[in-house]
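Example S7 (structure tokens).
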């Protein structure tokens, strides 16, 4: 699933491409997403001009000058691009100079009017050790699970939560309430560092190439992953996977470096 760095990379390309353009129409693929877009809402946007493209967590926010917005979520396998003849396109958004194609093999993407309730994202000014400590407090859930809860921390998924916890030297299965404040400080700092580095690399593209930016370019942060998908950590220790599933998946970690 595309996470914050991948969505931010897409946002930057989209903002440069469609800012100032007029929304003309849309066309749905057959089949479209499992949850079909609101056709009446899409029709109401006709003639509106894009003022900017923003992002919150994993959501793209297309803002219009008429004080409304269209929200896109890439789901598990969504891609935004401009190649109209590609397969598995679930919707095309026709602007005055560009056609934005939303391709989604698994059809879990969303095109909608409003955002769900989301927590702070790690790159915001308000995201701090104090904020993390407040959401870790009294929680028995694994720390990785809490970091991936979009209602608490917006934008993190399996890859970046794994890398953040490795850098912070904390095992993904630790109960959140048992993480000390000093450790929480490391998590907050690591989250900002990892995400900024990943954004500068254009995100992470795994061997299946499920993520490419709208211009077809692969990310490069996969070359800097420390434990995700690895057999050995940078210190030469074996990387294991948790015996139990955490937030839907068994987590990668280094038992020597992470405590």
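Recovered sequence:
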């Amino acid at each position: 699933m595309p996470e914050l760095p991948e969505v931010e990379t897409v946002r930057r390309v989209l903002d440069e491409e469609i800012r100032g353009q007029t929304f003309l129409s849309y066309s749905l693929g057959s089949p479209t997403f499992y949850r079909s877009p609101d056709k009446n809402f899409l029709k109401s946007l006709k003639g509106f001009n894009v003022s900017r493209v923003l992002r919150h967590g994993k959501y793209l926010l297309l803002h219009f000058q008429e004080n409304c917005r269209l929200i896109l979520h890439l789901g598990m396998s969504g891609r935004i691009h401009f190649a109209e003849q590609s397969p598995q396109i679930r919707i095309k958004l026709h602007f005055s100079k560009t056609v934005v194609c939303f391709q989604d093999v698994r059809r879990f993407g969303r095109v909608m009017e409003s955002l769900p309730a989301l927590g702070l994202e790690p790159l915001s000014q308000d995201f701090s050790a104090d904020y993390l400590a407040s959401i870790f407090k009294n929680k028995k859930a694994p720390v990785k699970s809490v970091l991936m809860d979009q209602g608490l921390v917006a934008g993190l998924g399996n890859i970046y939560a794994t890398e953040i916890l490795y850098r912070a030297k904390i095992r993904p299965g630790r109960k959140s309430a048992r993480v000390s404040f000093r450790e929480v400080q490391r998590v907050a700092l690591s989250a900002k560092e990892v995400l900024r580095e990943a954004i500068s690399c254009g995100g992470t593209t795994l061997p299946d190439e499920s993520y490419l930016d709208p211009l077809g370019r692969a990310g490069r942060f996969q070359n800097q992953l420390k434990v995700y998908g690895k057999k050995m950590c940078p210190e030469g220790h074996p990387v294991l996977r948790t015996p139990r599933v955490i937030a839907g998946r068994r987590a990668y970690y280094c038992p020597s470096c992470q405590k």
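Notes on this example. Strands lie at 23-28, 50-56, 59-64, 68-73, 78-81, 89-95, 99-104, 110-112, 240-246, 249-253.
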